Amino acid sequence: MLPFTMTKLLVYLFSYALLFIPAYAYNPTHSKPEIQHATSYKAVENINQYWISEKLDGMRGYWNGQQLVTRQGNIIHSPTWFTKNWPTTAIDGELWIGREQFQSTVSCVRKIKIDEACWRNVRFMIFDLPKHPGTFTERIKSMQTITNRTSSKHLDMIKQFKLTSNQQLDDTLNSITFNQGEGLMIHKGSAYYHVGRTNNIMKLKKDQHDEATVITYIDGKGKYQGMLGAIKVRTATGIVFKIGSGFSDYERANPPKIGDTITYKYNGKTKAGIPRFARFFRIRNTEVEEELIEK
């Protein structure tokens, strides 16, 4: 048997180590919520049959009527006031701070010790009601009723709207993207909630995403002297290229590590297979990626 003092020391060290484990890494896993998943956009003849909303770059969450959980069923610890007065019905939504605030959102939501200051900036944006028996058009009315009746500035609804032509769809996508939005979600109004992947809900983006491994740094020049100028990366198929844009000043001072897997955005590829207009998006975190709404 270990001496009493040694036992106390081990307990202390174990407790201290827990501070560095993500909030939902060691919490009991509830049943994985039964949710639906979108497919990539395919042109439709009559866009007026669909509801359009902005695709938010946040973290998908599921309110089971009592507790917020991730799409994997792991508990999300939020302040008690955050979910105060929320309904007991199941809600599918996105934990979101704002455009281009993905890292801030995930950082806040994953903390084991609740940071109430950052949670005050988070909203749970409703985009569906999994247990509702009606069509999506009928579910929109119920979502509106929930947000109107619930006295919570942290529970909101993603705006749903209609368009009349594919040209309007293109114009709306261009406007959202120009203003740093991620894209659009297109949901058939007559569709019922379907657990699993369905063509009744589609995601439309201008940007494409992929991953690559950081293999070296390129020093910055001018205002980035002494900081990161670009990274050289290698894709899973062996394509090597540079990424020099998309970094914040903080990220240039604290760049991804050699060997890190990063996600980047791009728009098409050259004949040689090199991504065009590649921009850094974020460092890939396997633990986090499993919890995200599929990109």
Give a verbal description of the structure.
With 295 residues, this protein is of the alpha+beta class. It folds into two domains: 36-204, 2-Layer Sandwich (D-amino Acid Aminotransferase, Chain A, domain 1), CATH 3.30.470.30; 208-289, OB fold (Dihydrolipoamide Acetyltransferase, E2P). Helix content is 22%, strand content 28%. It contains seven helices and 14 strands. The protein has a five-stranded mixed beta sheet with strand order 4-3-5-6-7. A five-stranded antiparallel beta sheet has the order 12-11-10-13-14. Strands 1-9-8-2 form a four-stranded mixed beta sheet. The longest helix is centred in the N-terminal third of the chain and has 15 residues, at 4-18. The radius of gyration is 22 Å and the shape is globular. The model is unreliable at 6-29 and 286-295 (pLDDT under 50).
